[in-house]
Amino acid sequence: MFVATNRFRVIPAMAAEFEARWLGRESRLHELDGFIRFHLLKGPEAADHILYSSTTLWASRAAFEAWTRSEQFRAAHAGAGASKPTTLGPPQFEGFEVLQEIEGVRTPG
């Protein structure tokens, strides 16, 4: 498996707009072979930013790389940066090969 993460340093005054863009967008990830899961994460606040991370889990690095060449990828990133900036610079990409996975038992609630 492969985990692909983009870290965003979001300007605090723009956090609501950043979240609205992500939560209101049409995702086509489910159309891709090898896509497993997506998470949008909100992390700690610093004086000048709030840390967010978009994280996808893929069956393999090859499946992720196929996504980056897909029509769905181009559609998802069309117009990126065209509106008022919400972040301090571009996202920081990090990719990881999964070496071990341990699952817990899910409980209701």
TrEMBL record:
SUPFAM superfamilies named among the record's database cross-references: Dimeric alpha+beta barrel (SSF54909)
UniProt keyword annotation of Protein biosynthesis present = no
Record keywords, A-Z: Monooxygenase, Oxidoreductase
| Coiled-coil residue spans | none
Q: Which InterPro entries match?
A: ABM_dom, Dimeric_a/b-barrel, Heme-degrading_MO
Q: What's an example of a GO molecular-function annotation for this chain?
A: monooxygenase activity
Q: Which domain of life is it from?
A: Bacteria
Q: Where is the ABM domain?
A: 2-96
Q: Under what name is this protein listed?
A: Antibiotic biosynthesis monooxygenase
Q: Which organism is it from?
A: Roseomonas nitratireducens
Lineage of the species this protein comes from: Bacteria, Pseudomonadati, Pseudomonadota, Alphaproteobacteria, Acetobacterales
